[in-house]
Amino acid sequence: MARVKKLSARLEAMAGHINAGESVADIGADHGYLPLHLVREGVSPFAILTDSQPGPLEKTRASVARAKAGRSDMRIELRLGDGLSALGPGEVDVVVIAGMGGETISSILSTDPSKACSFRKYILQPRTKTDVLKAWLAGEGWKILAEEEAEERGRKCDVIVCTTKGM
C-alpha cells in the first residue's frame, strides 16, 4: 500500500471546509495532496486535478499513481487546461484554487463568469495579494462564507471559502 502523506496545516484548513459527499476540482493541482486525501478518506466521491502545463501535470500523475496503488476505488481524473477551462459547467461541487497570487485567482474566476457561477463553492488560498482577491470578490458580488489563517513553513496562509453571486 502507498505511504500516506500527512497534510500540512494549510491543506488541513482547506480540507476542513469540504463536506462529505462534495466532489472537488483542484485547479493547478501541483502535487495533488488535498484532493487525493479527500478521495482516499472517503470525503469526496471523486476529484478532478488540472494544470495548464504538461510538466506539472505529469508530476501530479505520479502522485495519483502512488495514491491509487492497490486502490481501484479511487475516482480521480487528471486534465490539461487553463483555469476553469478543463471543467464542464457545474461538474463538481467545490473548486479549489490554491497557491497562486490573488490577481491570478481573480483572473481565473473572471475569464468565464458563466462557468464560474456554475460551481457551488470555492476554496481559495492566495499566496500573495489576498486584499486584491477579496476586493475583486466583493466587487463582483461574491459572498465570503468563511475565512481562516493557517501556517505553512513559517508563512501565513489565508483560506477563503466563498460562493458566487449566482448561488
Estimate nothing, just give the exact number of structural domains.
Answer: 1
Radius of gyration: 15 Å
Report helical residue fraction: 25-40%
Q: What about the largest sheet?
A: 7 strands, mixed
* Structural class by secondary-structure content: alpha/beta
Number of separate helices:
6
Describe, in plain words, how this protein is organized in 3D.
The chain has a single domain, classed as Rossmann fold. It has six helices and seven strands. Helix 4 runs parallel beside helix 6. The longest helix is centred in the middle third of the chain and has 15 residues.
Keywords, please?
167 residues, 6 helices, alpha/beta, seven-stranded mixed beta sheet, globular, Rossmann fold
Write the layout of secondary structure elements.
Elements: H1 9-15, E1 24-27, H2 33-40, E2 47-51, H3 54-68, E3 76-80, E4 94-101, H4 102-111, H5 113-116, E5 121-128, H6 130-139, E6 143-152, E7 155-163
Parallel strand pairs: 1-2, 1-4, 2-3, 4-5
Antiparallel strand pairs: 5-7, 6-7
What is the structure about, briefly put?
Helix content is 32%, strand content 29%. It is an alpha/beta fold. The longest helix has 15 residues, at 54-68.
